[in-house]
Amino acid sequence: MSNFISIQELENTKSKYMSVKFHDYIEGLDLIQPLDVELEVKSMGEFVEISGNVKGIVKLVCDFCLKEFEYKLDFDINEMFAKNSLLDSYGQEIELKGDQFVTDLCGEDKIDICDLLYQSVILNIPNQKVCGINCNRGSFASEEELTDPRLEVFKNLDINPK
Ligand SMILES: [Zn+2]
What we know:
The protein has one domain. Helices cover about 15% and strands about 40% of the residues. The chain is built from three helices and eight strands, in the order βαβββββββαα. The chain has helices at about 5-10, 115-125, 150-155, and strands at about 5, 15-25, 35-45, 45-60, 70-80, 95, 100-105, 110. Strands 2-3-4-5-7-6 form a six-stranded mixed β-sheet. Strands 1-8 form a two-stranded antiparallel ribbon. The protein starts with a strand and ends in a 7-residue tail after the last helix.
C-alpha cells in the first residue's frame, strides 16, 4: 500500500479518477486504532480534488482535569491541490471560498496522504479539549472522594421493609 497519490498515475487513468483506501496509523497522532479513510481523487485540469471521509479514534488529554480520553473522529475532507506553481504570488495556500483551500504542489508529482490526513485530523480536533459532560473541571480530587449524587438520596431514606 502506497502512502502517496501519484499525479502521473491519476493522469494515466481513463476516467482521471482514483479511489484510495487508507487504513493505518499516522506518525504524530495518538491513534487508538488505525484511521479508516476512503478518498476520491479527481483530476480537474490544473487542479486535483481530494474528497472523502475519515474515521478513527484519537487519544487526547483533557484541558481541565488532565485525564486522557478517547475522541471519536468522523469528518469529511475536501481539498484542492494545484498541480503547477501557478499560485506563486499567493504563497503556499490561498483561500478559494469559505473554508476550502488550495495547496500548491509546486510541480511535485505526488500527494502525501499521511501529511494530508495529519493536517485534517489536527484541524478537526476541538481547540478546547474536554473529556466529557461530567468533567471534574479544575478539581484534582481523587476518585474515592467523589460521591455519586444519585446515591446521596438513599442516605436520608428510612427504609422499613414490610
Ligand atoms: Zn476532564
